[in-house]
What we know:
CATH superfamily of one domain: t-snare proteins
Shape: rod-shaped
CATH architecture of one domain: Up-down Bundle
Helix content: over 70%
Number of strands: 0
Order of helices and strands: HHHHH
Mean pLDDT: 81
Low-confidence stretches: 95-108
Distance between the termini: 131 Å
Largest sheet: none
Structural class: mainly alpha
Oligomer: single chain
CATH class of one domain: Mainly Alpha
CATH topology of one domain: Methane Monooxygenase Hydroxylase, Chain G, domain 1
Number of helices: 5
Amino acid sequence: MASLIESYEQQYSTLTADITSFIGKISNSHGGEKQGHIRHVEKFFDEATELLEQMELEVKEQPSRERQKYQTRVVSYKSELSKLQTDMKRAKLGLDSCRDELLGDDTHDSEDQRTRLLDNSERLERSSRKLEHGQRIALETEAIGAQIMDDLNSQRHSIQRSRNRLEEMNTTLGKSSRVLSGMMKRIIQNRILLLGIGVFILVVVGVAIYFMVKKHS
Length: 217
């Protein structure tokens, strides 16, 4: 468990170093480049927050004598991450915050207003990302639905073709049944005819024998 926490700590240290580096880049960049650095930092913050959550879960599994030590570390890491988030907000203000420092104390209210505006802007950005994510999911769902409809349509055509073949087979079987029935009727008729001929021959032979016997007697 302890080795896993130490691994988390090393990853956290790397992430905070990357965050600090990119915060410096945010302060010294503008436009699209600045927005790219901001997106990188936000990604690092998400990874660091998730890492601290995993670390907290592992700390709960530690023996009681070790738990307090790691809990103190996690609290320290959270405080550090919160300070870095504040630094990033200041970096986003860029030259405006520096100008406020030069203008003096009267600019503090203005800075607070810009900070609130920045917070609102961040919330709007998060909402926008959520909307974009929802839109992607909706488009993917639509694509999956269209694929399912195509598959169902294809299956419907296959079922229809199978049904047509069955109907053709039923028609063919019906014709074959009628042909067999006609053949059976003719066979029965022929047998009756042969039986009648056989009976007639027996009668003729019997009559002939009768007259021959009578003649000799």
